[in-house]
Design goal:
Blueprint lengths: L1 H33 L10 H41 L7 H19 L5 H23 L7 H24 L13 H4 L1 E4 L5 E4 L4 E13 L2 E16 L8 E5 L8 E5 L4 E6 L8 E6 L1
Antiparallel strand pairs: 1-2, 1-8, 2-3, 3-4, 4-5, 5-6, 6-7, 7-8
Length: 287
């Protein structure tokens, strides 16, 4: 009975650390993505909030499964090795054993062709040092007796990182990405997808398309049609740089409005392929 309680406590401690790591990774990723070029997805934040509890439950279940299947056995083995070679358990045995176990797993995946060697090395380094070595160390140390304190201080740390990230973005210590602000004159010229297709805008509102792809959703499948012809174009400056649109009208093509992305030095026109949340884009760059 004592062994079961001890194992349960270790799984609980490991799960807490894994969840804190996942939360910290999410916060840092969200802040970092604000500084990187991204399409105007216009995410549904209400839907995201509704999905958050389900994601938390799923994360907790996954963390417990990983803790029970990987972390706990590693801690048991590292404890036995510590007692055998060091006379008692040592904290550094857990990261060493975890590194060895993951090295064998990634090596087997690379030899089997499931994972490229380069990715194997990256995954080993990241997962070993960040994702699993820390919970393995925590469950093999006195931290297992202080799981509540670890959870509380860890949550405060994650919140603090998020607040600091928001302040840095607000004060422009980190530059938030904004699409370039264009004018009709800036659009005049030839835009290409680097695969031979071109869209040529003239100053008089005429446009010429050569092989520009049109993506349509039919029965959950995306079909591609190359469009060639002449038509007209108009520019809608919108309320801000995110809402700028270029409307292109051709007799045999039915593109939705083109969005503007890229940078001021290298602007792009793009359209979504399929679900906008997938960020799968068809992009034209100005020559």
């Amino acid at each position: 009975m004592r062994y079961e309680r001890s194992a349960n406590r270790m799984v609980w401690a490991s799960s807490v650390v894994l969840l804190l790591e996942a939360a910290l990774t999410l916060v840092v990723t969200v802040v970092y993505n604000q500084t990187r070029e991204s399409p105007n997805v216009g995410g549904n934040y209400a839907l995201g909030l509704l999905a958050a509890p389900c994601a938390a439950v799923a994360g907790a279940v996954l963390a417990a499964a990983v803790s029970g299947a990987i972390v706990l056995p590693v801690v048991r083995v590292s404890g036995a090795l510590g007692r055998k070679f060091s006379g008692r358990e040592r904290w550094w045995w857990a990261p060493l054993v975890m590194a060895a176990v993951l090295a064998v797993l990634w090596l087997a995946a690379a030899v089997g062709g499931a994972v490229p060697w380069s990715l194997c090395a990256v995954l080993w380094g990241v997962v070993t040092s960040a994702a699993l070595a820390l919970p393995a160390w925590a469950t093999g140390s006195r931290c297992v007796r202080r799981t509540g304190a670890v959870a509380g201080w860890g949550a405060l740390f994650v919140i603090g990182v998020g607040v600091l990230g928001c302040v840095a973005l607000r004060l422009n210590l980190l530059q938030t990405y904004r699409p370039p602000t264009l004018s009709p004159a800036a659009l005049v010229g030839t835009w290409s997808d680097n695969e031979g297709a071109t869209l040529r805008f003239a100053a008089d509102g005429k446009v010429t398309a050569t092989g520009v792809k049109e993506h349509r959703e039919e029965n959950f499948n995306t079909t591609v049609k190359p469009c060639t012809g002449k038509g007209t174009w108009t520019f809608d400056e919108g309320e801000n740089s995110w809402t700028q649109e270029v409307h292109v009208t051709l007799p045999d093509c039915s593109w939705p409005a083109w969005n503007i992305g890229g940078t001021q030095e290298q602007p792009t026109l793009y359209q979504y392929i399929g679900d906008p949340d997938s960020w799968d884009l068809y992009t034209l760059k100005k020559r």
